[in-house]
Amino acid sequence: MEGWYNRIWKETAKPLCTWLVSPNAATILQKDKKGWTVWTKNTPINGRMRSQRAQYTNTMGYTATVVDCRLCSVDKTSAEKLQLRDIGPVRQGEANPNNQWKKYGWIVPSLQTNKTAEKKMVQNIRDQQGKIVTDGSFNHGRMTAAFMSIAKHPIKGSNMIPGHKQDHSSYRGELGSILLAITVTNEMCKKYNITKGKCTLGVDSKGALATTFRWKRPNTR
Fold first, then answer.
1. Contact, 187 vs 99, CB < 8 A?
2. Between 126 and 62, where is the model more confident?
3. Which domains does the chain have, with CATH numbers?
4. pLDDT digits (tens, 9 = 90+) for 30-56
């Protein structure tokens, strides 16, 4: 998680990446010993081709320039052709110039917010009407979590939960989403000097909470 903050990848992380895609998805760059191999998007003969599953051909060319590219994952269909499978995170919402969330590290690496959304959330908390929903996920050996405030202009956040392979589980993912939501809510209360209010947290994590606080044995089925 050292490579990015607020959904912007640091330049120091790019040498560690294998696949990058240009902003308009016209080219894909593959890192190897010589530099960045350029794969160019094929032009469809008939009809319109969706960029997410577009075909790319190896041009056998190299480039040393990597500007505004995003991380991506690909599926190779042959030695000379591949398909774009997924594009990595990009900036969303307003960047915080004071980096107030950076101190929380992996807990709040990504937050979509602005002044309007923050003011609405703060007012709802003061009016005893604050509402947040959370969810966590465990898939392909990775744990991710997210939360969203319930409002016309919601605040949204997500993270990827660290840990050794033997520690990964759906419970840990669910708890990570709760920690994310509580951390953001507490920070908002500090920032806007809220000393009295209410925020209801909606979760589907009863099993995770029960296991963590030893209310019952975990169900392994």
1. no
2. 126
3. 12-87 (no CATH), 102-212 (3.30.420)
4. 888 778 888 888 876 555 555 446 789
